[in-house]
Backbone:
């Protein structure tokens, strides 16, 4: 049974709970699957995710790197959650950021794609599913939840929005802002925004039914009073 009490303030999910091997494996598998999906998005060459659209647009106006731009967005999300919930900013999402980024870099260095002789649209479809499933597992582990997902979970808890609506709103804002700044759009961008955001919560529900502990996002979140 999922303990809904811990979702009242999602930034500290599982913080006081012993970090057992089950959670560790859920988290690690989630990171690996997400990194593989992100790599396949790059390999498909059909468009980037909304965050990269924003960052690449930002780079047209500021002397930054992609990594610094992405890290900056993550920090803003974590500070927003901390201010909203009156908790200290979480550090574990930044570990996930660098961990997944390192795996993506390793996959690119190894040039794994040279063994994948598949059409770009098939690669994109698999990438969408892997990113959604990886995100679902990371969230379910209750550790290192990606910064934007953490902010979306907070919105879900506070406003009783569906997770897909909260995450879609955030990434939609990034997409529109990035486009206005001159960032690139593609069919892959739409697939990420629609496909990944819509699939995460159903995949969490499916995994819960299969016996995976859900420590990050309740199926039916309990609202938190606005004053708390």
Residues:
């Amino acid at each position: 049974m999922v303990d809904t009490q811990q979702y009242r303030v999602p930034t500290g999910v599982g913080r006081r709970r012993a970090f057992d091997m089950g959670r560790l494996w859920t988290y690690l598998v989630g990171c690996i699957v997400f990194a593989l999906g992100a790599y396949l998005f790059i390999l498909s060459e059909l468009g980037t995710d909304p965050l990269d659209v924003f960052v690449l647009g930002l780079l047209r106006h500021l002397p930054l790197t992609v990594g610094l731009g992405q890290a900056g967005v993550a920090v803003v999300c974590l500070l927003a959650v901390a201010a909203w919930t009156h908790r200290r900013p979480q550090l574990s999402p930044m570990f996930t950021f660098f961990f997944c980024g390192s795996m993506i870099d390793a996959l690119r260095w190894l040039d794994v794609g040279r063994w994948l002789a598949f059409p770009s649209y098939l690669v994109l479809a698999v990438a969408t599913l892997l990113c959604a499933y990886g995100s679902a597992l990371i969230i379910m582990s209750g550790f290192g939840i990606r910064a934007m997902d953490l902010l979306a979970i907070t919105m879900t808890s506070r406003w009783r929005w569906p997770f897909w609506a909260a995450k879609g709103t955030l990434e939609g804002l990034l997409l529109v802002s990035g486009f206005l700044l001159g960032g690139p759009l593609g069919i892959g961008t739409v697939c990420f925004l629609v496909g990944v955001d819509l699939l995460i919560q159903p995949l969490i529900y499916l995994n819960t039914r299969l016996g995976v502990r859900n420590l990050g996002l309740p199926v039916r979140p309990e609202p938190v009073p606005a004053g708390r």
Summary: Residues 22-209 form one domain.
